[in-house]
From TrEMBL:
<keyword id="KW-0560">Oxidoreductase</keyword>
<feature type="transmembrane region" description="Helical">
    <location>
        <begin position="275"/>
        <end position="293"/>
    </location>
</feature>
<feature type="transmembrane region" description="Helical">
    <location>
        <begin position="82"/>
        <end position="102"/>
    </location>
</feature>
<dbReference type="GO" id="GO:0003954">
    <property type="term" value="F:NADH dehydrogenase activity"/>
</dbReference>
<keyword id="KW-1278">Translocase</keyword>
<dbReference type="Pfam" id="PF00146">
    <property type="entry name" value="NADHdh"/>
</dbReference>
<keyword id="KW-1003">Cell membrane</keyword>
<feature type="transmembrane region" description="Helical">
    <location>
        <begin position="187"/>
        <end position="206"/>
    </location>
</feature>
<feature type="transmembrane region" description="Helical">
    <location>
        <begin position="155"/>
        <end position="175"/>
    </location>
</feature>
<feature type="transmembrane region" description="Helical">
    <location>
        <begin position="108"/>
        <end position="134"/>
    </location>
</feature>
<keyword id="KW-0830">Ubiquinone</keyword>
<dbReference type="GO" id="GO:0048038">
    <property type="term" value="F:quinone binding"/>
</dbReference>
<keyword id="KW-0874">Quinone</keyword>
<comment type="similarity">
    <text>Belongs to the complex I subunit 1 family.</text>
</comment>
<feature type="transmembrane region" description="Helical">
    <location>
        <begin position="313"/>
        <end position="334"/>
    </location>
</feature>
<feature type="transmembrane region" description="Helical">
    <location>
        <begin position="12"/>
        <end position="35"/>
    </location>
</feature>
<dbReference type="InterPro" id="IPR001694">
    <property type="entry name" value="NADH_UbQ_OxRdtase_su1/FPO"/>
</dbReference>
Length: 335
């Protein structure tokens, strides 16, 4: 019995502790991202934002969570109860399990697998299922239309994201996310691949249903879209899942284009700052760009959204893949 405990239990406990060490800061980050969003939008619109609950309104996310936790979960009479409840759980779960392969530094990564990029792409592709299930199971035409919009939107922009990732992988020669970061020790990929950086960021906005591409949640025409029938903790899980996906896409942007945990310049004072701190700062910068876009850009029409994805981003990203491959082969820069 002692041998079994020493042989199997301790590695399991260590892995569980590592998972908890990732999930708890992530959930705290999600909670305070909602606070940061309200404060940033308020500052850009010359308002105060949350300022009543706690000093500077810092306890507002906790108050919101307690309010949602204490409410009654209402399930519509005509809804499919099992799918209705499972959909937000799936969305929230997928936003968490993707972090298994995210490297926070050269040594801090839960699963340092050689196909980390494929794993991330697969998880982000599955995210649409939770929204489709919610739209169908709610038995509401508004929710159903929101689900259909989300399916078309996410499939359209995943194609462009795939070509952007291929462009980066051509320059790295590996599917391991740590190798992607280490390949940027000389120069971040955001500089030589700047057009792809812009395409990836805009596609990330569409992939996470953020403004100006928040058409699945169009309040003006769909009364809230796919989550219109949700309340209490089921709504909170969708809310948490959306913001966790924002942080995940910001982390992917940081890893693919902004050097991950690497400092911007290889000088001694910057090298003293731990890698996870640099990684968190870059994620915060990209998240600020998410909020900045929401405050300044009006919502697209649906035909404009589809045209941008299929007629602009798709051919442009495909052209850039061919151009990058041609340059690498011509100058012998293939890794």
């Amino acid at each position: 019995m002692v041998e079994l405990w020493s042989g199997y239990a301790w590695p399991t406990i260590i892995i569980v502790l590592q998972i908890v060490a990732i999930i708890i800061p992530l959930l705290v980050g999600v909670a305070y991202l909602t606070y940061a969003e309200r404060k940033v939008l308020a500052a850009m619109q010359l308002r105060q934002g949350p300022n009543m609950v706690g000093p500077f309104g810092l306890f507002q996310p906790l108050a919101d969570g307690l309010k949602l936790f204490g409410k009654e979960t209402v399930i519509p009479a005509g809804a499919n109860r099992v799918v209705f409840v499972f959909a937000p759980m799936l969305t929230f779960l997928l936003s968490l399990i993707a972090w298994a392969v995210i490297p926070f530094s050269s040594t801090m990564v839960l699963a340092n697998i050689n196909v980390g990029v494929l794993y991330l792409f697969a998880i982000s592709s599955l995210g649409v299922y939770g929204i489709i299930m919610a739209g169908w199971a709610s038995n509401s035409k508004y929710a159903f239309l929101g689900g259909l919009r989300s399916a078309a939107q996410m499939v359209s922009y995943e194609v462009s994201i795939g070509f952007v990732i291929i462009t980066v992988l051509l320059c790295v020669g590996s599917l391991n996310l740590s190798d992607v970061v280490l390949a940027q020790r000389t120069v971040w990929f955001a500089i030589p691949l700047f057009p792809m950086f812009v395409v990836f960021f805009i596609s990330a906005l569409a992939e996470t249903n953020r403004a100006p591409f928040d058409l699945p949640e169009g309040e003006s025409e769909l009364v809230g879209g796919y989550n219109v029938e949700y309340s209490a903790m089921t709504f909170a899980l969708f809310f948490l899942g959306e913001y966790a996906n924002m942080i995940l896409m910001s982390a992917m942007t940081s890893i693919l284009f902004l050097g991950g945990w690497l400092p911007p310049f290889d000088i001694a004072p910057l090298n003293w700052i731990p890698g996870p701190i640099w990684f968190a700062l870059k994620i915060a910068l990209v998240l600020f760009m998410f909020l900045w876009v929401r405050a300044t850009v009006p919502r697209y029409r649906y035909d404009q959204l589809m045209r941008l994805g299929w007629k602009v981003f798709l051919p442009f990203s495909l052209f850039w893949v061919i151009l990058t491959a041609g340059v690498l082969v011509t100058f012998g820069w293939l890794p």
